[in-house]
Design brief:
single chain; Jelly Rolls; mainly beta; 214 residues; 8-stranded antiparallel sheet
């Protein structure tokens, strides 16, 4: 039997436990703050982003930023050189945010075009992370032939999984992406391709952002 003291202690512990919020609930997002939000590509390398074919722009309303590519293609089959089956792009992005605030990526949308013969596959594989933090934000999609159309891949990130740029320093953001095309065995002599280009005047990739105070 519990004495009065034991019951009292348990009661206090119960109040303490029920009053503690989960870590995810402690994240308080805010509206986009006043001040400058800027992004620019400071390093670009890879077969998917030759010099002058890639740009990074922060939206004026501070709710997103866009990355555009104009020469990002992987292709395989039909005598195409094997090295063309994989295209990659690694971008280092300089970031500027309003003082006292930080941001994280809450959603991503990728667009492109694919022409895949029967048996062929096209794969999108992307990651993003702030310098000094673990690689997160990995997104993978696979499209199977026959497929001849525009494609779009969208990913929503729960607030508990958002990776925030560390406060008190504008840490660079790394964006790593690749396209891989496999010819398959059904029509290996037919060229298949996959692009991540804004060929239809739409934005190639869109990263939605969310804000919180430091």
């Amino acid at each position: 039997m519990l004495g009065r003291l034991g019951i009292a202690v348990l009661s206090v512990l119960g109040v303490m436990l029920t009053s503690v919020e989960p870590v995810t609930a402690q994240v308080r997002t805010v509206d986009p703050p006043d001040g400058h939000f800027g992004m620019s590509a400071v390093s670009v390398r890879g077969t998917g982003c030759p010099v002058g074919t890639t740009s990074v722009i922060a939206n004026s309303d501070k709710t997103a930023f866009t990355v555009t590519y104009s020469n990002y293609t992987a292709q395989n089959g039909g005598g195409v050189a094997l090295f063309q089956a994989r295209a990659q792009c690694v971008i280092g992005v300089s970031v500027s945010v309003p003082q006292g605030f930080t941001f994280g990526i809450k959603s991503t949308t990728f667009r492109g075009y694919a022409d895949l013969a029967a048996g062929a596959t096209g794969t999108l594989d992307t990651q993003y992370w702030f310098v000094g933090q673990p690689m997160t934000g990995r997104i993978q999609r696979e499209y199977r032939g026959p497929f001849q159309d525009n494609w779009q891949a969208t990913d929503e990130v729960p607030i508990s999984a958002v990776q925030w740029m560390p406060c008190r320093a504008n840490y660079p953001l790394n964006i790593n992406s690749q396209l891989i095309v496999r010819a398959g065995s059904v029509n290996p002599n037919t060229t298949s391709l996959m692009t991540m280009d804004a060929t239809d005047s739409q934005i190639t990739t869109l990263y939605g952002v969310t804000w919180r105070a430091c």
